[in-house]
UniProtKB/TrEMBL annotation:
<dbReference type="InterPro" id="IPR021429">
    <property type="entry name" value="Mediator_Med24"/>
</dbReference>
<keyword id="KW-0539">Nucleus</keyword>
<dbReference type="Pfam" id="PF11277">
    <property type="entry name" value="Med24_N"/>
</dbReference>
<comment type="similarity">
    <text>Belongs to the Mediator complex subunit 24 family.</text>
</comment>
<keyword id="KW-0010">Activator</keyword>
<keyword id="KW-0804">Transcription</keyword>
<dbReference type="GO" id="GO:0016592">
    <property type="term" value="C:mediator complex"/>
</dbReference>
<dbReference type="GO" id="GO:0003712">
    <property type="term" value="F:transcription coregulator activity"/>
</dbReference>
<protein>
    <recommendedName>
        <fullName>Mediator of RNA polymerase II transcription subunit 24</fullName>
    </recommendedName>
</protein>
<keyword id="KW-0805">Transcription regulation</keyword>
<dbReference type="GO" id="GO:0060261">
    <property type="term" value="P:positive regulation of transcription initiation by RNA polymerase II"/>
</dbReference>
Amino acid sequence: MGVTMESSKVTSKTSSLKALLLRAWKERWSDLQWGIHIKTILPRGVSGDVYNLADCILQQALVGPGPNQLVMSYLKHSLSAQLVSYAAVLQRIAKYDGFHKPHCVNCLLEFIEGIQSGITCRGKPEEGILASAILSLAHWLLQCYHHAAISSPESHNDMLQKPASILGYMLNCDFLTAMLYLAKHDDKVLYSDVVRKCHEVEDVILQNPTLATVAPIQELLSKLCHLELGTTSLTNLNEREIDNTEPLTYCIQALLAIQVMLNPSVDTNELANQLRLLQRLKGYKIARLCCEIIRACLMSLNNVLGTNNEESKWGAFTFLKLPQILFALTGSNIISSSDGDYNEDVAQSIQLLLQFVPLIDLMDSPASSNCIEAILTELVKLKLLNEKQVLAYNQSREVVSCGLARMDINTSGGQNSGMAILKVIIRAQPTLQRILKTLDADYSKIQDALPNVLSQVLVGKSFELILSVAAVEGKLKTFVSKLIKFNECAKGGATARPVLFDMTFLMLCSIVQTNGSQVVFGGEEMRGEKSFIETWVEECMVERAHPKCPDLMLSQADQHVVDALLAQLKSPQPDFSAIGVSWDRICMSVPAATKEVVSAWELSLLSTADVKRILENMRQSMCCLPICASVWLCSYMQILPQDSLLKPMNMVQQFLTAVGNEEVPQQENFKERFYLMGQIIRKIQYDMHIATSSKLKVSPLSHSIVSREPMSDELGEIWSAVQDKGWLNVTATHALESLFITAGPQWFVMSLVKEVMKLRYKEELDKAVDLVLAVFHLDIETCTEILLMFVLPHYLHNIILNNQLMEPQCSALAKLCVYCIYAAWQYQGTSTPKRTFPTDMEEIEDLIPGKLLHLEDGVGGSAAVVSSVAISSQSKTDSPQIRPPLLKSLKFLFNFFSFVTEQTPYISQQTHFVFRFIELIVSCGKDEARPLLQHMPTTLVPSLVRALPDLFSTDLVLRLYDLNTTAGRKATASDLCLLRNLSLKPTV
């Protein structure tokens, strides 16, 4: 009943409007009189669209063979007075099919020309249909052109030229073109009809070439058929200005420095994807990316040559991993030629490398081969270069270096070191293969010979080189799993082999110290029941940033084993095999036995000589026992007062004192095991920041920071040097990691951001942002979370800090945030074992201003969120799903942004930052930005548009939402119309 009454009411109103039109025409009302009288029929605030006012007027105006200009003036007045909407008028015009009445069609075309500059939408109901109405108009214009072209082009000249002119205006107007693009997604059937009609018009033009000169429309047809972001006036972001003035890429070398330090065994494809992300963020070509990667490796290798730290790691990475990275980046595009296969981008990158003459001179030598030539040889093997291109490079080098003094290979330590590291790495590859093949053999057949085989790789730096090669070739976990297998077999029972257990235990400890337990024991290779070494590392092994509880170690001991162990340690000729238990149980009981010795010494129940004899018995029997004792002693010292440290410290030092030739036990491979044991215990001391004797030889690159200065001064000094150089050397890399671990990620991130904001010039800021992005890869997820949830709210909310958000610092901070978001998002999709650092995000949330904490659940009416990414559309991309903590951070941040923009609906530092942030999210990510923006509150973008209309473009708005969803299209239409209305508003 209600529906019938409502329908009759509309019919009655429509009849009244038609009667009013007839009366107006008969009495020849002016458009002003029409406007006065129609208000007697239309209720206040009600649009004429409800009663089909536009349809009524056009029916009356076009009823005869010619148009009724007076009635048409009523339509124009109604449109100006907002009695009807543009959407309703355009939809009604698009339904007109009286092409046999050229005067009426021309009248409509002239009418469209008169209103086209003001087409917009000022009411919510019309926003959803305006885009389709504009597309319908485009289809009608094509029909006009097509009808005139196939009828009589000479007599329908206006019907040819005016549609072409109107379409040209539409496709050159950002707003109208954006609405056409929106309608393409909103009404796919209608857009298919438009494309079909375009093809029909093209066919007619081909049959009658004169049409192309009378009313050229071919270019417009092409644009209509290819409405895509980046191909029409829709875009300026896809072709955004790329800063080609940047002389160097500062982030690539720093990123590689962090990655090689943290995890040299990272998967090649994952590292290649990280580098691709940097290329996409920076807008570089792939050739430049490859050149910068090679340059970064050469710089880092030159930095470590001749030192005892990182040399083998960087050598293996440069000569073995670098070619694989370049192949992962470009290997899918190999070009075949008569001179051999090659990749064009890699060939160009080698030519670009020639501009870095000083670096190449440092890495070259006058010998027949050199570091760079070794890299080129590997690239030839992978078919990324051919021999002719290598020859061309050599000839180019001769031209560039002509007249320069060549270094003598006999006096150049750097070059000799480069050649030496290359040679040993080349020799280490087959050695690793032989070891892996040997470890594949049956335990019973090689248990006696295996210790001698393994001892050969423990001489000098051989073990370090083997591990470096295994890491970069992705065989480290395979090596570890095989060592664990033999360690398990040798620990007890009928297959017990103490020396083999001892050697494999030491090797596994060293590998864990070098690479971290998450890297070594993570992944599919380590699935299944935990081995003894995995359990021991998890519960006892001291690692950086992962201290262990000394009391927990004691709880793992067997008291009967402890008593037997102490008895053997006190005897003149200890025999641990007489205890009658497996070596894993003995290792677990060593901390408790060590505790007994410490306590007895402190109570004077044991003399210093007694303690020394016990420790000598321990270290001259099995080298794994001093390590088990040292990890407990170092952990124990962490909870002791300063005046109680001397005795435990001296016990650790006793393990490290040199053994004279006459004191060396007559055990197989003892020297090799003792040397490795000393390295492991020293590393434990460094990791736990345990003070050592001044007489003890300590590595010059100790990663422990011991300074009387405040940490902020220490960071400032380190960062100033890094900023000046523009790259990370080994010393700075380790120092920054130590500060990160010592002070915590919250202080670290805030301090680095403060260092960036101190800079004043754009070039300095861009360099700093690149370097900070790379350094944040120490833990990119945690750093990004802190940056978004802690640092940004302080800068936007704190009145002192937000005064620093001026340009160019504002854009630099926004860029850093965006870069970190994309890097953290990509990192979530990797299979790399996550290195964890101690951090308590609850403490971070406690420090966020209290009044802002409720933003997590939305701000008042802003809680509604545009779900601009459907599950189906997200599955079409290769982007990983956004997961916590990044997801939580983004939700908080966008709600916080909405709060900021609603509280300050005018231009301010805060609103400008929010705009720059969103703009950079879009410009850096393009279509991939939409998943990141899906949690924006509905009020955020409109608030920004009102405050900063001149900064927004239709292209930016179109990229903010997912147009494959209804909610995304609705929000896009609303924001486009708001931007249009503000642009049409007269300036004061």
